[in-house]
């Protein structure tokens, strides 16, 4: 067979390519317009026919994603209620936090319009961008944000400034609690910020949260010294390799034990201490064990795209340089900086681990 390599074909191809690019540009700008007001497809169109088809396509896409988020939310809520109804003792209120990290603003709005109010994010920059988004500001007026990622002390200021921040679930050190308190004081918020203490129940080396033996001290500090923080409970992420087939999740059991310990040592009642545990694959199990706050992402919004390789490389390089820098400072005996250095190294390990998830 003869390949289409002659001049006429080439020109035809170029012309088609130009036309396609023109249409894509037009479609892009129309899409931007439509975010403000979608066109009425029944009205006579000035636009060419292909535009009409394009709009039908977009409309169906949107309807498909709306209905899948709506269905998933209904299912997750029903599953939670089902677990609660099996309980024979004690009332249990469970809050569903819809985790929208890496997901677009449209998904947040869709879930909000289905009645969801609590949303979770784990990167400050992403949370800042989403809270500032004009559509979120216009539509999601009663949104309640949960911060569920690692907070570096130098980002406490950014966190304190987030509008509609309902809860920080990841207070992991006295240093962070004090800094967050100070930044909230400066920001002059009228309400206290609800916080959970993040507990490292899995004792993994890449530590996430405070070790179980230090939880009560941290809770005491928050309750007695941090006037801008309101202690609400405990949170764990847990190890990622536990399979439900192996029975009860040991991280959840440890968090329950930890709560008993805090009750005794801080003179609190069990029902005064919330437990944030359970994600997409194990939220029902977590509710069964007594969780009051589940953080569910991919089951509602679909699987997340893995972070882009180039972004990973960038972060990894940046973190490695930072660690190196601190190592060097350490070598030159800046002893007062030792805890800072430890924290930077710890933060970096956490960040690298998050990227690997
Ligand atoms: C991403 C994330 C979740 C949600 O994970 P899914 O498995 O998608 O439900 C929950 N908690 C934390 C801390 C997270 O970072």
Automatic annotation (TrEMBL):
Pfam families: Ala_racemase_N. GO terms for molecular function: pyridoxal phosphate binding. Residues 317-344 are annotated as: Disordered. Keywords: Pyridoxal phosphate. The keyword Acyltransferase does not apply. PROSITE patterns: UPF0001 (PS01211). The modification N6-(pyridoxal phosphate)lysine is found at residue 101. The keyword Protein transport does not apply. Residues 78-304 form the Alanine racemase N-terminal domain. Residues 324-333 have a biased composition (Low complexity). Pyridoxal 5'-phosphate (PLP)-binding protein, which may be involved in intracellular homeostatic regulation of pyridoxal 5'-phosphate (PLP), the active form of vitamin B6. PANTHER family: PROLINE SYNTHETASE CO-TRANSCRIBED BACTERIAL HOMOLOG PROTEIN, PYRIDOXAL PHOSPHATE HOMEOSTASIS PROTEIN. Belongs to the pyridoxal phosphate-binding protein YggS/PROSC family. This is Pyridoxal phosphate homeostasis protein.
């Amino acid at each position: 067979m003869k390949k289409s390599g002659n001049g006429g074909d080439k020109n035809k191809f170029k012309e088609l390519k130009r036309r396609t690019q023109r249409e894509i540009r037009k479609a892009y700008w129309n899409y931007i317009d439509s975010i403000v007001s979608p066109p009425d497809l029944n009205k006579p169109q000035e636009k060419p026919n292909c535009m009409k088809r394009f709009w039908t396509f977009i409309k169906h896409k949107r309807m498909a994603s709306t209905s899948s988020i709506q269905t998933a939310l209904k299912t997750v809520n029903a599953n939670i209620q089902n677990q609660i109804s099996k309980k024979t003792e004690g009332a249990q209120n469970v809050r569903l936090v819809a985790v929208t990290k890496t997901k677009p603003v449209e998904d947040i709005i869709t879930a909000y319009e289905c009645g969801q109010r609590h949303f979770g994010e784990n990167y400050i920059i992403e949370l800042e961008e989403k809270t500032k988004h004009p559509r979120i500001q216009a539509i999601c007026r009663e949104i309640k944000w949960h911060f569920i990622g690692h907070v570096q002390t130098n980002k406490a200021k950014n966190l304190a400034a987030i509008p509609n921040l309902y809860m920080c679930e990841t207070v992991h050190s006295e240093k962070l609690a004090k800094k967050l308190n100070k930044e909230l004081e400066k920001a002059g918020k009228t309400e206290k910020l609800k916080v959970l203490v993040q507990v490292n129940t899995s004792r993994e080396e890449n530590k996430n949260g405070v070790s179980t033996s230090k939880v009560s001290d941290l809770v005491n500090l928050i309750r007695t010294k941090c006037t801008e923080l309101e202690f609400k409970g405990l949170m764990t992420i847990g190890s990622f390799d536990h399979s439900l087939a192996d029975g009860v999740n040991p991280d959840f059991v440890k968090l329950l034990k930890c709560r008993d310990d805090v009750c005794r040592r801080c003179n609190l009642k069990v029902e005064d201490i919330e437990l944030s545990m359970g994600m997409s694959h194990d939220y029902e199990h977590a509710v069964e064990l007594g969780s009051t706050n589940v953080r569910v992402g991919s089951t509602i919004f679909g699987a997340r795209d893995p972070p882009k390789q180039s972004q990973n490389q960038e972060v990894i390089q940046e973190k490695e340089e930072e660690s190196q820098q601190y190592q060097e400072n350490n070598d030159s005996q800046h002893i007062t900086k030792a805890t800072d250095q430890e924290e930077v190294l710890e933060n970096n390990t956490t960040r690298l681990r998050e990227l690997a998830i």
